[in-house]
Amino acid sequence: MKQNKQNKENVFWKYFSGNNWIIPFSIIVCFIVILSFRLLSDPDLGFHLNAGRWILENLSFPTKDTFTYTSTQNDYIDLHWLFQVIIFFVYAISGYNGLSILVVILSVVLLFLLFKRNRILGIPLYFSCILFLMGFLIIEPRIVLRPEMFTFIFISIILLVLDNYYYRNIKQLYFLPVLMLVWCNMHSLFILGFALTGAYFISLWLKERKFDKYFFVYMFFSFAVCIINPYFFKGFTFPLELFTRFDSSNIFNQHLEEFRSFFQLDLFVFKNILFLIFIFLVLLSFLLTIRKRKLHELLLLSIFLYLAFISIRNISLFTIIAIPILGNSLTSITESVKIKFKYFNWNFVKKLIYFIFIIIPLLLILRLFTNSYYATTNSVNKTGIGIDNNVQPLNACEFIKTNKLNGRIINSLGYGGWLAWSTQQPVFIDGRLEVIKEALYNDVVESWNGGLSKLISKYNPDIIIYNYSKYYPWTTQLSEMADWRLIYLDGNSAIFAQKNYAVNIHEFDFSSLFPQYKIPENISDKEKQKVLNISPRGKFYLWVDGFFHKTDFTNNELLNISSFCILFKEYKIAERFLLEDIRRTKAANSYIYYALADIYKTAGDKEDALLCYHKILLSNPKNKMVLNSMRELQSVATDTAGTVPEKKDENEAKQLFNSGNKKYQNGDIKNALKDYDKAIALKPDYYKAYNNRGILKASEFKKDNEALKDFDKAIEINPDYADAYLGRGTSKYNLKDLEGACKDWQKSSLLGNTQATKQLEKYCR
C-alpha cells in the first residue's frame, strides 16, 4: 500500500520536475484564481440565500412559493436546497466575503479535476496550459455563485471515476450513487449524469463485446438514488419541465439571453469567437484522429455540443466535457507530426508558444486587477471580494428599510431575489422562472410596450422599484403618470411611490445627485466649452491605459443617470452628467456627443449643438446624418411646429394595438398589420403603433423604405422613443446606410435601449 502511494507521488513529481512548462502553468493557475475573485453580482444570489435561511429556520422544504405575493399558489420544487443551505451557512460564518472566496475554491477544485483527467489521458503539460487558459476564458461568464458551479464539479468527478474505470480498470464506481445522490439535491442538471454514465457504459459494452454487470449495477443505483430528494418522483422528473425554456416559442427563451441559441446572438464578443475557435479545434482534431477516438467521446461531444448550440448557458458544459478530449486528440496529432517531420526543428516553435503562454496570462492578470478586462468585454463582473454595489440594489433596499416602505412592490425581474432577501417582504417577481411561470412574465413583457398602467391596475402596488437602464420603458410611462412620483434615484435603481403612499417622503430632488457624485451643480459657459473641446484619446491609448489604471465604474452610473434624465425630460441634469463623463474619461465615449447635440438642439443652442457635431466628425468625417443635421442648423431654425391630431377613440385604438401585438406573437402577421393600421387611423399620434407597424414591414415584409416612414413618424411624435430609433437604425443598416444606423442606435442606447448598445458594439466600432 505504501509502495503504491510512493509510486504515485514519484510519477506526479516526475510530471513537473524538469518540465519548463511549470512556469506558464503556475501563471495560468494564478490567472484563473484572480479571474474567480470577483464581486458577487448574480441576480439569483438573493433568492438562493433567502431559501437557505427559510429551510434552516423552518426545518422543512418549500412546496409553495413564499417569496412573492403573485405566485403563492404555484408549486416550488426546490432542487437547489442543498446548495442554498451551504451558501447560507457560509454567509452566516463569513459574510459576503466568504461567499466570494467560495467561488474561488470551486474554480480551483474544477481546475484540479480537469488537470487530473488530463493526467490520466497522458496529455502533456503544455497542452493542459493552452486548454485551461482557453477553457476558463470561455466559461468565465458562468463563474458565479450558482448551483451550476457544483454541476461543473460533479460532471468532472464522475468523468474522472469513469476514466479510471475505462482506461485503468480502477473499480471505484461505488462513488457514482453517492455523487448522484448529492447532485440531485444540489442542481436540476443532475440529469446530465445519466448521459455521462450511459455514454461510457455503451462505449465499454461495444469495446469489450460483453455486458458489464458490475458497471450496470452501479449505473442503475446511481439513477435510482435520484428519487431520494424532498419531492421524490416530482423532483426526479422536474428537469424535463425545464427543457421547455429552450423552445424558441417560450417567452423566457425570447427575452432572456442565457436561454437563447448560440446562433441567435446579436453580438459576438471575444469569448464567443474563442468558443467558435475551440469548437473548430475539437471537431477538426477529432476527425483527424477518428481511429483513436472512443465511442463515449463521440457521444458526449454530440450531446453537449447540441446543448451548447440551443442555449448559450450550456457553452460551459461543452467546454468542460471537451477539454480532455481535445487534449487527447492534439497529443495524438503532434506525435504523428513529429514522426512525419522528424528533421524539422521544433524547438523554435516550442519556445515561441512557451513565451506566448507566459505573456498572455500575465497581461490578462494586469487587466483583471484594473478591471479593464471586464469593462472592454461589456461584462457586469468585476475583480474584488464581497457584494457588487453597482449591480445589486443595496442602497435602494436600504432606502426601503430605513423608511419602512412595507407596501406592495412591483419590481424588475433581476431585483426580486435581492429585494426579498434584503427587505424580508414579499416581492412581485424574482428569478425563479420555474415558480413564477410564463403568464406572470408575459404581464411584465406587455408592460414594456405601454402596458405599465394595466400592470399597476392588476397588482395595485404602493411602490415600484426597478433597474431603469434595463426597464427604460417604465421610466417614460411613469413620467406621464400623475398618480406616481419619483422618491429615490441612484446610478442603477429608481423608486416611484403612489401619490398617496409614504406622503412623508418628498419627491426626489435631482440636485441632490450633484454632491453624491461630486459634480459641481453649476458650470460656467467657459468651463462647458473647455469640456466640450477636450480632445478624445485614441483607442490604443485607452487599451494601454487599461494595464495601469483602475476602471472607474461610477462613469457608467453617470451615463445611466443621464439616460434616465433624458427620458424624464430633465435635460439640464442630463447635460451636467454627460459633460462630467466627458471630463472624467477624457472623451473616451464619442457617442455622448450625439445625446448632447440633441439636448442643445432641443434647447435652441445651435452653437453648442454644432460643436458636438464637429466632435463626432473628428472620428467619422463622412457621417451623413451629422452633416445633414449641421446643414439644417446652419440654414434654418429647427421646425418644432407640429400639431398633434385630435384624438378620436383612444380606448379602441389601444385595444387594436394590443390585438395586433398578440396576433404578431401568434404568427398572424397580415391581421396584425391591419390592426396597427386601424389603431393609427383612430389615433394618428399613436407612435407605438407606428413603431410596431414599422417593425413588421421591415422584419416580415422586408420593406425597409416603407418601415423608415413609420419609424420617422414615431420619432416625430415622441423624440425620446428609444425603440423607434433602434428600429430605424436597423432599417438603415439593411439599406446600407451604416452611418445613419449608428447614429440612431447611439440615440436609442443613450435613451436606455440595451439592444441598441449591442448593435453599436457589433457594427459601429
Q: What report would you give on this structure?
A:
By secondary structure, the chain is an all-alpha fold. It folds into six domains: 30-145 and 344-387, no CATH class; 168-239, no CATH class; 249-340, no CATH class; 394-508; 513-635, Alpha Horseshoe (Serine Threonine Protein Phosphatase 5, Tetratricopeptide repeat), CATH 1.25.40; 650-763, Alpha Horseshoe (Serine Threonine Protein Phosphatase 5, Tetratricopeptide repeat). The chain is 65% helix and 3% strand. The chain is built from 35 helices and four strands. It has helices at 2-16, 22-36, 45-58, 81-120, 125-139, 147-168, 175-183, 192-208, 213-224, 233-242, 251-255, 270-288, 295-310, 315-340, 347-370, 372-376, 394-402, 413-423, 433-459, 472-479, 513-516, 525-532, 539-545, 554-567, 571-585, 592-602, 606-619, 624-635, 650-665, 669-682, 687-699, 704-717, 722-734, 738-750, 754-763, and strands at residues 409-411, 463-467, 484-489, 493-498. It has a four-stranded mixed beta sheet. Strand 3 (484-489) and strand 4 (493-498) form a beta hairpin. Helix 5 (125-139) packs across helix 12 (270-288) and helix 25 packs antiparallel against helix 26 (592-602). The radius of gyration is 29 Å and the shape is globular. Residues 5-13 and 636-648 have low confidence and may be disordered.
- Number of distinct beta strands: 4
Order of strands side by side in the largest beta sheet? 1-2-4-3
Mean pLDDT: 87
| Structural shape | globular
Strand content: under 5%
Enumerate how many helices there are, as a single number. Answer: 35
Structural class based on helices, strands and sheet pairing: mainly alpha
Spatial extent as radius of gyration: 29 Å
Structurally, the number of domains stands at 6
Helix percentage? 55-70%
Distance N to C terminus:
63 Å
Largest sheet: 4 strands, mixed
Low-confidence stretches: 5-13, 636-648
